[in-house]
Amino acid sequence: MREPDFDVDWVDYEREPRVAPNPSFPSGVDLDVSGGAQRTCTAVLPYPARRVGAYLVECRRCAVNAMVTTAGRVDDPRSVKVACKDQPKEH
Ligand SMILES: [Zn+2]
Questions:
Q1: Which contiguous run of DSSP H or E holds residue 67?
Q2: How much distance in Å is there from the Cα of 6 to the middle of ligand 1?
């Protein structure tokens, strides 16, 4: 197995979700916070999250980072795409 490209930490907000999941996303959401950048990194997130919290994601290659919130529901993020600083293509 390949060395993961991302450090992913989960911050536990110690709360359970209070609202029902968005029925439009029954199998998770692929987030894109790259702003349409040509060079991107995509981090795969542990899915679903345990409960309400946030993933802190940092690329090991270019050190770009992102924070995405979770709810512990089926509409949690599965992955997040960020603008990459020095990758020639998606990795
Ligand atoms: Zn990167």
A1: strand 65-71
A2: 8
Between the CA of 55 and the centroid of ligand 1 the distance, in Å, is 16
Which residues are within 8 A (CB) of 51 and not within 5 positions of it... i.e. 6 or more apart?
A: 12, 13, 14, 15, 16, 17, 70, 71, 72
Q: What is the pLDDT of residues 22-56, one digit of tens each?
A: 999 999 999 999 999 988 889 999 999 999 999 99
pTM of the model: 0.85
Please tell me what DSSP assigns to residue 62. Answer: T
- Name the pairing type of β-strands 29-32 and 77-83: parallel
Compute the distance from residue 50 Cα to the ligand 1 centre, in Å. Answer: 26
- What's the 18 CA to ligand 1 centre distance in angstroms? 34
